[in-house]
Amino acid sequence: MTALEDPVAIGGVEIPNRLYRAPLLECAGTEPRTPERLVRELEPAAASGVGLVTQGATIVRPESGCPAPRMTRVHDPEFVSGLAPVPEAIGDHGGRVFCQLEHGGLRSLEIWHSAYRERHPDFRQLAVSRPPRALRALDRVGMFDIDAQVLSTAEVRELARDFGRSAGYLVDAGYDGIHIAGANMGIVQQFLSPYYNRRSDEFGDGVRFLECVHDAIREFAGEVPLITKVPVETEFPRPLDRRITFDDGVRIARRLERIGYDGVVPVTGSPFWDTNLVRGTYPERAWETSDLQPGYEEAFGGRWRARAVAAAHRLHSRWVEEKPAWNREFCRRVREAVSIPVCCEGGIRTREGIDRLLDPSAEHGSSEAAPEPAADLVGLGRPFYAEPRLGARLLDGEENRSVDGTEAKSGPSPVRDRDAGRALCRNCNNCTIPQVTGAKGTCRTPSIVRERAWLEKEGVYDD
Ligand SMILES: Cc1cc2nc3c(=O)[nH]c(=O)nc-3n(C[C@H](O)[C@H](O)[C@H](O)COP(=O)(O)O)c2cc1C
Hints:
With 463 residues, the protein is of the alpha/beta class. The chain contains 19 helices and 12 strands. The strands form 3 sheets. Strands 10-9-8-5-4-3-12-11 form an 8-stranded parallel beta sheet. A two-stranded antiparallel sheet has the order 1-2. Strand 3, helix 1 and strand 4 form a beta-alpha-beta unit. Helix 1 runs parallel beside helix 3 and helix 12 packs across helix 13. The radius of gyration is 21 Å and the shape is globular. The structure holds flavin mononucleotide. Flavin mononucleotide binds next to strand 4.
């Protein structure tokens, strides 16, 4: 039986257990205080026993290419050497930290963030091919401002080398591994997706870009553990027939293993940057928070446009189905096809659910053939905004195994019993919207914040 507490190796590096913090925006910027902010953000997960902490996407170029405000850039060796306190802090707790590398391409701030665009009118967006019709339509109605620079073959190679250089700087700073932001409509997904990629050169095969990224990382950073998200674009209704299908996704993962990637994170989504990424409810409270309104208006170019985005968001969040562990089936299919570790994330909230992903045999009778496990490591994202030390409640101890409280330790707090083995996060997404203003990633739902305070008082997160 595989347990969450069992160690696992990625690219020859041992991770002390199979629980990871999925990459999230830290909004830590690129400033002298960035290392301190990142430590504050990431260390609590490691302190609570999480085996692998992933630092959210960082940008490999000095300008443009940032999908969201206040992301950290990692193109400068001197700046990156200053991030050493991050791996040190996590290593002190016995955990490992991977840093994610990204370029936004057509998802960059200079396309959608009105105030940023005004500050940088000359920035062009890197594009794999001519932008798709839907994006051009948004440009025509003024929601986007597209000035795309379609990359030449030589420029694609240079971009891949920038991923390699940044990886080298991060490894020199002490990071344990590199994670490629392969999904969420970043430039890697734009290479992989037939919706974006209509090139006729060697990079018409999008995996070729990931191959060049791999080669550059091996050149600059050596045999460091290297993993990537693998996207499929299954969550979008027809008539979009040019998309990454499940079969494509499995084939991509297989090829990545042959190229030399050490792990994959299969994720289902769409070709766009939409609520598929953060399935859950419409973030009512976040959109209404008056102190953040000026920031939304700045980002979306005025009050009415911000309202239009909110309305589209409301519609889309009703349409997108939120089911627990929504990437499970895709992960299972990929895991059957590869022998490198498969990391599963997306809507996982209970210890019971985690156990099922790692070893479904436990809940099957001996006469019944159990399905194959879906994952070798299991990750949670938003729940760490709500409970930075969540690991303490999911790892170890029988008291964490129950989700209904029947086997849970009895204690003076009803909260404690009810939530044993279950993350407090309810996918209400109030954490996500403020990040378009560059605001810190944190839970903004009062009932959850109160519950966490209760648990803290109870000492549930203590060592
Ligand atoms: C605010 C926010 C920022 C995110 N940033 C990243 C990122 O930088 N890179 C990435 O690959 N995924 C990112 N994700 C996706 C998460 O890693 C994760 O896949 C997603 O939140 C689903 O997991 P969850 O339901 O446990 O939150 C982000 C998600 C959220 C909510």
